[in-house]
Structures are given as structure tokens and as C-alpha cells.
Amino acid sequence: MQQVRNRQFILGVIATLVVNLCFAIGVNVISWAGRKGINPFAISCVRNWFSVILFTVYASFFLKGKVKKLLPKDYKWIILSAVTGLVINGVAATYGYTFTLVTHSSLILAMAPIWMILGGAIFYKEKLHGRVIIGVLMGMIATVMIIFSKENPENEHLAKNIPYGDFFVLFSTLGYATYVLISKKIATKGYHPIQLLKYTFIASSIIITPLCGNYFLAINWHILTALEWIFFFICLGFIQTVLPYLLISYAVPAIGSLNYGLLVFLQPLFACLIGILFLGEQLTSIIIYASVLLFIGLYIAQTASAKVKHHEI
């Protein structure tokens, strides 16, 4: 029995590392596509449409007859999840990626757990103890340092407007944190997580298509080669979205939410490395200092928050 648990834990860790790599690749691919001239709103359309297709296919083959029918009273939670998690978070993040650097955006994305902790305190009356507050403040200070840092001149030609893009990425983390808090409301209702994702992406596509569909129709298809387009579609629909969410549904039960949350800190590191190696970005000393402060703050806040919840239980 112990061997089985150990094997599940190891597989859960591996799945989490792959999740981090998938999201890191996604951030870099979106930044690359934006620098190639693809409109961020068109990118949002592509991601949503492909995700709907892939989640629907997966649910049809692997979840048929195994899931609870979605009740009409829960439609509002699906719509709220779509608006916060995919419209506000997804579109704002994609828009921000195309204006800033991966070495900025990937670190700012790590602010989402800070907003979740604050949101839990506001909406779920979770207590904020001293260590949690210290960690939250460290994360906020680090984010301000990143946004207002003086950039390396070698990076300036890679991004259109770095502070502008940074603010949109930061705004997207608020959307994601709200989405996670809303998800808690529906997670206890007995639905399969992939089933919820399918309906959430369908709802977001209904919202995004009228708003962004014209940008997709205006794409200049000659700016990328056929192989680059195939790579782009696979990355957006499968590598950045469907694959990581499938792995998350396995990884979190296997290793626990706290361990998963701590390992997720590797995602910005993976994204920065890919951005440096493949997009030619350069790290500045202030970004290095800010990232260290950010990760220490997140570690303190998240571990302290988990201990508080454990004692309250």
C-alpha cells in the first residue's frame, strides 16, 4: 500500500512539473506570436475554440456516462467562472504578454496566490496571521519592483510597452484568483473537473467570439509558415490548456494542494529560462532581486496560510 502511495506521489510530482513546463511554454508562445504580429484578441479566440473542441472530444470518449448532469441552478457559477477565469484572466493576460517581456509576465503571474489569500480573508473569513501578512507584503513589494524596474536596453526592442503590459498581466491575476474562489463554490457539488472546464470554455467562447472574432478574421496568415501555425495551434489548445488541466486533476489529489502550490513556484523559473534561451531576453539585477523576494514572500504566505487552516480544522 505504501509503495502504491509513493508511486502515486512521484507521478504526481512529475505531472506537476509537466504542468509548470506547459504553462511556461504557453506564456512564451503567446509572447512570440504577439511579436510576430498576431493580435492578442485573435490569440484568445484560437485558445478558446481549440480548448472547447479538445475538452469536448475528451469528455465524449472518457467521461461518457461517468459524470453528473449539470443542473440549471449551477449555470451561474459556470458563467462567472468563464467571465473571471477565461475572459478577464485569459484575455487580459494574453494582451499583456504581447506588450511585455516573459521575464516580467511570468513573475507577475505568481501574484495570483497572494490575491487568493486576501480573497479568502475577505469572502471566506479566513484569518490572516502575522507571517501571512509579511509574505503578502513581500510579494506586493516585489511586484512593484518588477513593474517599475529600469529595463535592460537589450530587451527594449523585444517588447512594445513593458509597464503597460505588466499592468494587464497583474490585472489578469485578480481575475484568476476570483475564478479560483468561485470554483470553490461549485467544486463540492459532485461534478467532474474536466466536465466543468468544458462548460466553462464553452461559455467563455460564447462571450469572446462576438468581441474578438473579427480580430481572428483579420489575421495575416502569411506572417507564419504552415509548420509555425501548426505549432502555434497545438501549443495554445493542447500544451497550454488541455494537457495541464488534465494533469492538474491527477496531480493535486496525488500530492496534496500545499505541495502542488509550492511546486507551482517553478513555473516562472521555467518560463524565464525559455524566454532567455529562445526569445533572447536578458535578466536585470533588479528582476533577480525582486524574484527572490517574491518567492520568499509567496513561500511564507502560502505555508503560513496552510498551517492556519490546518489548526482551524
Describe the structure.
The protein has helices at residues 2-36, 40-62, 75-97, 102-108, 112-123, 130-147, 162-187, 193-217, 226-255, 257-263, 266-278, 285-312. The protein is mostly helical. It has one domain (2-113, 161-281). Helix 3 crosses helix 8 (193-217), helix 4 runs antiparallel to helix 11 and helix 5 packs across helix 7 (162-187).
Give the helix/strand class. Answer: mainly alpha
Largest sheet: none
Averaged pLDDT, please?
A: 88
* Count of runs of 4 or more consecutive helical residues: 12
Shape: globular
Oligomer: single chain
Distance between the termini: 27 Å
State the helical fraction.
Answer: over 70%
